[in-house]
Amino acid sequence: MATYLRKHVHGGMYFFTVVTGRRNTKLAKDLSRSCLREAISAVSATHPFTLFASVLLPDHLHMMWRLPDGRDQDYSTRMRLIKSTFTRMYLRRGGREGSPAESRQRHGERSVWQRRFWEHTCRDDLDIKRCLDYLHWNPVKHGLAPRVIDWAWSSFHRFVRLGEYPTDWGGVNPCPGVEMPE
Length: 182
What we know:
Elements: E1 13-19, H1 30-46, E2 50-56, E3 60-66, H2 75-92, H3 102-107, E4 118-121, H4 125-141, H5 156-161
Antiparallel strand pairs: 1-3, 1-4, 2-3
Helix pairs in contact: 1-2
């Protein structure tokens, strides 16, 4: 089993990308959104974190979390629990996972999600803002919405209500040259 070097910062802010297995577009469905919301809520109740921002696209999810200061910083366990809790709920409620690759079949693994996730530790306030802009711009980047405000499954709407962004923000790519795993 691979050992990944992960940076852990007490009270840190992290940017995550999680992708569905075989880029299946299952996340665009009401069932998926409901199961994901419940899974995140259940995991954060037992393994605290604050979901700072998120955007849900048909085949992947970007999230920013703040982990509690002075507590465990094990975001890998939190992500594993979110993915496994979602998978159980989703399949129990009639969701389909498709046919798993041969290697997954050999290991008895589900294929709802890709095996891993991508993580970036935010270094400072400017990095947090860059990640937040990238996250909110993502539906426009992928051609899923003409404007950021038009994508319903994004924390952008909450940030507008808080006065952090104007409603017309993102008419032009706010983070040219910034590339993160999709």
